[in-house]
Each structure stands twice: as C-alpha cells, then as structure tokens.
Amino acid sequence: MSQTDIGPPDYKTMLPPIIARNYGQWRYHETLQTGVLKHVAESGEELYSVRMGSQRLLSTDTVREICDIADKYCDGHLRFTSRYNVEFLVSDQNQLQPLLEDLKARGRVIGGTGAGITGMVHTQGWIHCHTPATDASGPVKAIMDALADYFTGAKVLPGKVRISLACCLNMCGAVHCSDISVLGMHRLVPVVDHERVKGCEIPTTVASCPTGAIRPDRAKGSVVVNAEKCMYCGNCYTMCPAMPLADPEGDGISIWVGGKVSNSRSGPAFSKLAIPYLPNNPPRWPETVEAVKNIVEVYAAHARKHERVGEWINRVGWEKFFRLTGIPFTDKHIDDYTLASTTFRSSAQFKF
Ligand code: SF4
Ligand code: SF4
C-alpha cells in the first residue's frame, strides 16, 4: 500500500486482529448487560464490547488513562463511538469481569445501549467556537448527570432517546434530527463597530448574510444591519469580527423534539420547536436540565414500547404533548418561514 499524506490512513490497518480475521462474518450479538455486548463470529470466535461513557473534550491525562485500561485488558484495542463513548474490545473472556470491576472502581459509567439514553452529540461551545449562544460541554454534563440512570440501564425507556446539543443554529450538532435537541439561540442583532469594520472586507461581509439583512454604508465606509431581516445566525460575525452578536441577556437555549435519523417504523424526521427560550444559567443550567428531564419522564410514562419521541407525539397529537409536558404553547411555535408551506398542518382540526 502506498503511503501518502492525503486523507486518513486505511482503517483496516488498525482493526483488532479478531475483527480483521472475522471481518464481515459476524453471526449475531447479544446484550449481556446494558453497555456490554457479546459478538459471535461464524468461526465461533467471541468478542466482548464494553461501552463506557466519556466526555467529548478529553484531557491528555484521560486519554492516557483510557489507553492504560485498553493495554491491560484488551491488548490495547478500543474504539470511540460517534457519541463519544469509549468501547473497550475484549477478546479474552477472562478479562471481561476484571475490566468491568476496574471501570467501576474508577467511577466510570457503563451503558448507552438499548432502549435508553446514550452519550449526547454536541458542539464546541464556549471553549472553541466564536459564535456560540450557549456552552456545549457544560449543559451536556449537567443534563447527563440528571439522566445517568437511563444510560446505565437502571431505568429503561420505551425506545432509544437520542439527545443532542448545538450551541448556535449553524448547528454542528445533530439537533435537526434528534429525539430531544438543545439549541443555543441568539436573540439580538449584531452590534456594528464602525471603526473596526474598516478592517473587514465589506463585499464578503454583505454577501455572508443569508437573509440580505446587511447593506454597505458608503458614507461611513461601514455596513448597516436591517434588524427586521436578521435571523441572528452569526454568519456575518464569522466574516467580520467587528460585528459581535453574543449577549448575556439575549443569548439562551431552545428545546426541540421529535426528530430522528432512523428509517425504522417511520421515516426520518426533523426536530420541532418545543421551548423557544431558556436562560443561560451556568454552571449547572438548572432550567435546561429540568426541561429535558421533564420531556424524558413524560415520554417514559406515555409512549408505547419501541416508540421514539416523535412517533409518540405524532400518535397522541402535538396539542396533547404540550398539555402532558406542561410546556406553554406560544406564538413562537407558529412556523412563519417563507418557504415552510409544505410543513404546515393545513387541516382545520385542533384537539386542545
Ligand atoms: Fe460554533 Fe455554532 Fe458549531 Fe456551536 S454550533 S460550534 S457556535 S458553529
Ligand atoms: Fe445576517 Fe445572520 Fe448577520 Fe443577522 S446575524 S445580519 S442574519 S448574517
């Protein structure tokens, strides 16, 4: 195989030997406990995967700790799931119990499989990005602390619940299609610093606005923002740092529900607005944690087995969803996007 510096290396060079030997020839898997699966190959070989909850932003100390654990029990083999969980891949059955006990002694949680809540997909937040309306790791930690029993399997749900967080509507997270989504919202237009705008490229700044809300101000050699047209996306700030829109009072969190990527039972669906605004309240975001927990608990009490959050809402009706959860229905829930006519419910029937 030729070696280049373009693109990722071939993943097959990093497969654990047992997976390389049995590639594409797995017969079945069974769940031994939440987070622990036994995979059996056509050849009769067995592999155990142990899923451990993990944060997305890892310190070097944590990476070293995870690698040490993998060296001790799994010949150094582990993988990360798309929701940042770590899966230790154990090919020697005798190492399974010692690994589980070691992880428990370290205070690590095991779970995230089956009908429950696995790790939250989330974005950069206040740590890395320039346009967030809320933090990412902070609220995710607070929410998952409150929902840990649904991760470990101590409490089960009717179906899988995927929760995600994006810290602005540019949405590097999966908030457009998750059962429950936490989305940072700006609510104020960018404040133009006319002196500093002179250091930006005016044509690209004007062109960066998806709604055409920015026009040049030739007299000042700057730009003007039409507040009526602005949707607080932050694109202009990406082009021109002299147009910040972050604001302690204006910024906050919205909650969306009912989306999914899966094609089983019903088709993939977009998330829809449930709560338009909650304040940013670090370090533990109590309002957001309570709102997510409430939706999970009401869903747990009313959904049928295997129903996803969106399927449950569509069965009982959105009116009943708002009534059961106690979430107020406001004018903010009415979709007035110009091209939204295909998403409107055009029936005259309401069931409040
Ligand atoms: Fe940045 Fe928005 Fe992505 Fe958050 S969602 S990391 S604020 S672009
Ligand atoms: Fe346009 Fe978005 Fe900037 Fe508002 S925040 S002016 S919509 S680019």
Task: Describe, in plain words, how this protein is organized in 3D.
This protein is α+β, with helices and mostly antiparallel strands and 352 residues long. Helix content is 26%, strand content 18%. It has eleven helices and twelve strands. The chain has helices at 17-21, 60-73, 96-105, 137-146, 148-152, 194-197, 202-207, 235-239, 286-302, 309-316, 318-325, and strands at 26-33, 36-41, 46-52, 78-80, 86-90, 121-122, 163-166, 180-185, 214-217, 222-225, 252-257, 272-279. The strands form three sheets. Strands 1-2-3-5-4 form a five-stranded antiparallel beta sheet, with helices on one face. It is globular, with a radius of gyration of 24 Å. The site of one iron/sulfur cluster (SF4) has 11 residues, from loops.
What does this entry show, briefly?
The protein is of the alpha+beta class.
Work out the radius of gyration.
Answer: 24 Å
How do the strands of the widest beta sheet line up side by side? 1-2-3-5-4
Number of helical segments with 4 or more residues: 11
Bound molecules: iron/sulfur cluster
Give the helices and strands, then pairings.
Elements: H1 17-21, E1 26-33, E2 36-41, E3 46-52, H2 60-73, E4 78-80, E5 86-90, H3 96-105, E6 121-122, H4 137-146, H5 148-152, E7 163-166, E8 180-185, H6 194-197, H7 202-207, E9 214-217, E10 222-225, H8 235-239, E11 252-257, E12 272-279, H9 286-302, H10 309-316, H11 318-325
Parallel strand pairs: 6-7, 7-8
Antiparallel strand pairs: 1-2, 2-3, 3-5, 4-5, 8-11, 9-10, 11-12
Helix pairs in contact: 4-9
Bound molecules: iron/sulfur cluster (2 copies).
One iron/sulfur cluster is lined by residues 123-124, 129, 131-132, 166-168, 170-172.
